[in-house]
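Tokens for ABC transporter ATP-binding protein. Go.
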Amino acid sequence: MSETEKKLIEVSNLKKYFPVKGAFGINKNKYVKAVDDVSFYIKKGETFGLVGESGCGKSTLGRTITRLYDVTDGKVIFDGRDIARLGKKELKPYHKRMQVIFQDPYSSLNPYMNVSEIIDEPMAIHSNLSRVERMEKIEELLKRVGMKKSDMEKFPHEFSGGQRQRIGIARALSIEPEFVLCDEPISALDVSIQAQVVNMLEDFQKDMGLTYLFVAHDLSMVKHISSRIGVMYLGKIIEISESRNLYKNPLHPYTKALLSSIPVPDPKKASAALNKIIEGELPSPMDIPTGCRFRTRCPYATPICSEKEPEMKEVDKGHTVACHLF
């Protein structure tokens, strides 16, 4: 692998389980397996898209990688070092290199701080800049995200959702990180604003050499922004491929059904996969079935699907899938 294709993040057998709380406290025998034995990598400078239905563990995976959540088991190798077991002091320099753009622009900003204080907070912690230098940088960042110098003294409630998300982006990029978790950053925005935000993220990536993990529901937008895409189902990544190839030649039945859900303007041109719509609710992550976890909803399920869990296999160059059909 060349220098330009260097792995910035490598996740190995990562698990994140949440204990179940009942009427009498935590039940140590029951866990929600939000992330269950996930392995993949993200190359330096690329955008890795992560898709899947609600509850599949996408956001939890991203937050575990950035160590917002503690790791239950497995490795998170960031730029050559495993950070899965590091304490708060040891993590501080890595938090400077990893930042998050959150989904909800309404709850992710402190309502008691004005814009300059919100963006200045991470710089005051992680940089050696003077206050004057930080204020100059805040003004420059606001200009880059399409806002004005006069907005510095305003509070979050004075802005629209799109403007708040721009402030969140400016805050995340203020300390010049290397890796950014984009945790569904456009799902709460209007369609016209979504395109502006995505274009802005792409511009920052080119200028700053950023690496993104882009978590989203909007499959068409993920196709536009991502270099490679991982499809997640019930805590596991079941297919990984280059963006164009995944949309052109999806292999896993779940991926096919997921892509068939993308709205098509002309009903006559709708995907033939619509005839194989997934039936049933997402199984409980506390009681994952033996064998293939998708088998209870798969139209192609065979007896082996209930006996053995499929392993990730490389079917084509750069295209891996976990399915007994391959």
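The mean pLDDT is 89.
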